[in-house]
Amino acid sequence: MADTARHPFLQGLSKHRGAPPTVVVIFGASGDLTARKLIPAVYNLAHDNLLPADFFLVGFGRKAIPDEEFRGLAADAIKEFSRRELKTDVWDRLAPHTSYVAGGYDEPAAFTRLAAHLDAIEKQLGRAVQPLFYISTPPTVFAPIIRNLGASGLASRYLGQPHQAKVIIEKPFGRDLDSARALNATIQSVFAEPQVFRIDHYLGKETVQDLLVQRFANSIFEPLWNRNFISSVQITVAEEVGVGTRGGYYEQSGCLRDMIQNHTMQLVALTAMEPPVSLEAEAIRDEKVKLLRAIQPLNLGPSGDVARAQYGAGMVAGKQVPGYLAEEGINPESATETYAALRLSINNWRWQGVPFYLRSGKRLARRVSEIAVTFRRPPGTLFAEGDKFDLSANTLAFQIQPDEGMHLVVNTKIPGLETRTQPVKMSFRYRTTFGSNTAEAYERLVLDAMIGDGTLFIRGDETEASWKLCSPVLEVWEAAGREGMQSYAAGSWGPTGADALLARDQRAWRQP
Ligand code: BG6
Hints:
It is a single chain. The protein is an alpha/beta fold and 512 residues long. It folds into two domains: 3-170, Rossmann fold, CATH 3.40.50; 203-503, Dihydrodipicolinate Reductase, domain 2 (2-Layer Sandwich). Helices cover 36% and strands 21% of the residues. The chain contains 16 helices and 16 strands. The strands form two sheets. Strands 7, 8, 9, 10, 11, 12, 13, 14, 15 and 16 form a ten-stranded mixed sheet that branches. The longest helix is centred in the C-terminal third of the chain and has 21 residues, at 460-480. The two termini are 33 Å apart.
């Protein structure tokens, strides 16, 4: 069944769900993301008949790999990482259209070869094929790839037409405001904005897209969605995993860059933005940018709006795990944070005075991402909290993952001859309503880029607005080194500094 049939929101996002004949060229073809996410995404789109009839996949990388071997690697990746098993009839359609081009990212001749390869595909097919370049390499080679796509003429193929060349850029998009601006300038010197798809895979998650449906397709929430009824919002993006084998990358990144600046800020934007005038990409992105710009600069003083920490040794899922500093590839003196918490103030008509608390970290107690919106309490004239009345502020929690769904905490009378109360949870679960084998984020995003729908991608000004908030934090942390870095036991809910951030407002983190 096509995803559109399962989820009405998909219908609204684009006028049609058919992509023109397309060749997806993956730069960084032998990388981890390609094997784990991109090739399985392409396979599942093929499985669901969502790829255009004339679809081609080209791997591009430094290593010389014969076509046949690349197909073998792709099949292995599907077997290991796809949500569905490799089916011969699906793979037999895809494999003959899968090939590989070897070359250096800063080698102009390699891009001439790539152009010739695309020409040959078109010649064989006898019609134009939309090129979609997927840059999934380490960020150091983003700029040379983009420049070479420009110089070779690949970037301007079919410019101005619906099947014009398009480029998907993986994260990290810059490492601070200046580098993000520089990267945007490089991109914009080669591509027009409608050709550019900056990825944030959180936007491809069903539950993240559902935020807009919940907010704007239901009339009960919108009248309450403001400072008059909401007292605070908590956004948690918690992971159980540690840095694993990605120590080299993570040391250069840290939680703020890896999770907050992008994924978590996108959740803030979608939760708090004004209703867009339409579901068109630009209308939604305009509102997100406006919201991000309304967030006040953070107080970076000692009892300010931010907390950071590293995990120490501890127990996760019943297993003893080492602390961050003892992980493979980590400097034992590292000042890279694996946890960050922020208190945001949004200075606009809707949200003034409503704190947004954000936290994310690795090696936390449980993998869970949620957005919890807590409403103001009613006047306590009838039911006041005490022995008889166990009351909770109404909270609407969007569970992004796992066990995707939504819960509303309401106070209820406990059955009995006297009036006693208890908060209960009204729940909606995707799994029970829609089944569990839903599309992965990358499937949706690769399809949308092929179609040319940028709604679920980040616009250049959006990424800069988010960096503008985060960059000063990084500067202060980098200057401080390890001073002020807290520690938390692996398997816990984070450092005491993050609790203090809320305690100052007489609040505490929710147990998601
Ligand atoms: C990536 C980060 O962007 O998101 C990883 O680089 C993180 O460090 C991952 O583990 C989390 O994604 P998800 O979809 O598992 O929540």
